[in-house]
């Protein structure tokens, strides 16, 4: 069975395991079962017509006496590119806008308050080629680009916060960044969050195109909760998640683009660990499909030059602070994952596990400050 | 199916999934397949006679031109208590010594260079009771306790590093600590590592008995590699793993005692995330069985007083820096997990993924230093 034919872990388990064992397997793998969300018939039908997967789940919190529930609905969208990578750039971008427009419309039918797209969603993930042209032409202004304008329209139309990760061109100095634009449900650009950690691994030649982000660990206070965006490779860095959480994030999005051979076994681990460790929700989003490029390129692995990056395996999911998670979207299809979460769960789990209180952060601040100095003496005991 | 009857995730998957799908499911769940280790017949027979599970796996690294492989074998031991919790203390400790002695002998037959026992391995995990007596009588001196002497004998006899997590009584001030004693293969006490983070969750009333450790993030340079010990609840704190790694740890042991209802879905996530994030091996060890106490106690959950803590689910495993992991030991039986690892893999994966280089630690040191101040202003953007 080729990796790109394997539809999803959950489907395999559900097809073959006897019921009692399935319940135990799921408990160990996913934690407390995430209830399925009833989605409106019109949404289910539209998703089917528009040929994308639609799944919905709910994370509940316990009722409290002094606070009402803070239930919101988040939408994660994963998709393949629409046109071939050698189609005219404007056509590619327009086709992607159009595709996402029809998915976001379904998200709106499902009552989604906040939607996040995948990393550099308007373009193929062309950084494997190391060609500057034509790919840097996909870069857009955060404030005035057509993609931001498109997202502002969606935000206003559907009263929805939109997180739109793009390739950014900062106009004054013509610098490029890998940036998530955060648009309020009023349609205003709340701000941007640039990718903090840039990979140099396999075909991920992104350091050829842009540098480490300079926006720190900004958190955005939206009407529906405090959110942050940890882009792609930043999920491998526990300190990155942690610092967003230290700044108050209740939901951390992780828009990504990653392929099976490289990272798939790590995918279910890292965002979920971050949700557990930081008493927050995390939302991991990955693109799907295989993208073919006209020019061949090598992957630094001694193998022959080739024209594609491998299979982007989708599998987008949401993890909760109690260690539970939703099943993933498909490994092969466009999809919308709608997740209702009661943000009260974060504080409830914090009160239960108390990682922020038992974390001894002041001591780590001291230790880390020492550890980054050139004269750092590691604490190593020898016989 | 009751949680304590479910033997292991792997067994369920292997019994029911068709071969081709099983391969994909295992790839997604466990990463690159960990080869089974051929263990000597005498060891397999002895384990069977002595009624404990014996499993062996191997993590390989690529050959290098300038460095020979650094293959070592690590043994993880999980076990239930031997005598009832109301037996005389000395009898309980002696019975546990005797039980571990016969498991370590099998580890020696398997060529194990380094063994680690579970948290406070000489005693029941009695901290749920909140009774001081008789449990504090299990505490021993790191330097002169009978358990350390017992481990020193094992270490010399088998030329094996022994990590022995005990309840420590520091003699001068009669203070208690949750401490791992690290004994060199020469039989010398290399030093100790005290539990850095103390839980206050569910039945884990450990903060009633001992305080946060004061030994920092000490790493022990043994003949077989640089090791560190992150005890139990410390695995929920990514900074704890990280700081051991910053001090040079190649293998981080996580001797634990944890129960199904509380933590089981988090168990496969946290130590494995630490191996990935820190380019090192991690070894998670949990006790097995249900321990009954004479006095009843409550669990702070509104439920009736009762006499046991719940089921300790074993499931000890080793995770590698490439994101792969071994299957777990059983959820219900005593067991020895023998893992051969080539420590060269750590640097190879670091060269591939480069988290330590892309980690921007100097910036985190500054941010964290600010974040722990009382006048910290979180970076929150509002509309």
Architecture blueprint of SSEs:
Two copies of one chain form a homodimer.
Chain A: H1 9-16, H2 19-30, E1 35-36, H3 41-49, E2 53-59, E3 71-78, H4 89-109, E4 114-116, H5 146-158, E5 161-170, E6 175-183, E7 189-194, E8 219-222, E9 225-229, H6 238-246, E10 251-256, H7 260-263, H8 267-278, E11 281-286, E12 288-289, E13 292-297, E14 306-308, E15 312-313, E16 317-319, E17 335-342, H9 344-353, H10 355-358, H11 361-371, E18 380-382
Helix pairs in contact in A: 3-4, 4-5, 6-8
Question: What does this protein structure show overall?
Answer:
The structure is a homodimer of 383-residue chains. The first copy, chain A, is an alpha/beta fold. Chain A has a single domain, classed as 4-Layer Sandwich (Nitrilase/N-carbamoyl-D-aminoacid amidohydrolase), CATH 3.60.110.10. The first copy, chain A, has eleven helices and 18 strands. Chain A has an eight-stranded mixed sheet with strand order 1-2-17-3-4-5-6-7, with helices on both faces. The N and C termini of chain A lie far apart (51 Å). Chains A and B meet through helix 1, helix 2, strand 8, helix 6 and helix 8 of A and helix 1, helix 2, strand 8, helix 6 and helix 8 of B.
């Amino acid at each position: 069975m080729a990796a790109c034919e394997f539809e999803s872990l959950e489907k395999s388990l559900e097809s073959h395991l006897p019921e009692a064992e399935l319940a135990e397997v799921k408990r160990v793998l996913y934690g407390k079962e995430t209830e399925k969300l009833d989605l409106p018939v019109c949404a289910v039908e539209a998703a089917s017509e528009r040929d994308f997967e639609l799944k919905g789940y709910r994370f509940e919190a316990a009722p409290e006496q002094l606070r009402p529930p803070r239930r919101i609905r988040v939408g994660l969208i994963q998709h393949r590119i629409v046109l071939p990578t050698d189609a005219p750039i404007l056509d590619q971008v327009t086709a992607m806008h159009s595709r996402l427009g029809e998915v976001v419309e379904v998200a709106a039918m499902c009552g989604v308050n906040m939607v996040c797209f995948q990393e550099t969603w308007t373009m193929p993930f062309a950084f494997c080629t190391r060609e500057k042209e034509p790919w840097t032409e996909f870069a857009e202004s955060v404030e005035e680009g057509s993609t931001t304008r498109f997202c502002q329209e969606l935000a206003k139309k559907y009263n929805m916060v939109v997180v739109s990760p793009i390739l950014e061109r900062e106009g004054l100095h013509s610098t490029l960044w890998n940036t998530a634009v955060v648009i309020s449900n009023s349609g205003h650009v709340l701000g941007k969050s640039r990718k903090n950690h840039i990979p140099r691994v396999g075909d991920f030649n992104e350091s050829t195109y842009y540098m480490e982000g300079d926006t720190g660990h900004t958190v955005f206070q939206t009407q529906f909760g405090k959110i942050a965006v940890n882009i792609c490779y930043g999920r491998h860095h526990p300190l990155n998640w942690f610092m967003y959480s230290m700044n108050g994030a209740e939901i951390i999005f992780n828009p990504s683009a990653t392929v099976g051979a490289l990272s798939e076994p790590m995918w279910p681990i890292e965002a979920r660990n971050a949700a557990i460790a930081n008493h927050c929700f995390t939302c991991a989003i990955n693109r799907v499909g295989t993208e073919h490029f006209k020019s061949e390129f090598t992957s630094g692995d001694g193998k022959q030059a080739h024209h594609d990056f491998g299979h982007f395996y989708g599998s987008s999911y949401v993890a909760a602070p109690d260690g539970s998670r939703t099943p993933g979207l498909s490994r092969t299809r466009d999809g919308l994952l709608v997740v209702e979460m009661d943000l009260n769960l974060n504080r409830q789990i914090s009160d239960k596990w108390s990682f922020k209180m038992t974390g001894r952060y002041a001591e780590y601040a001291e230790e880390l400050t020492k550890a980054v100095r050139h004269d750092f003496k590691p604490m190593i005991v020898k016989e």
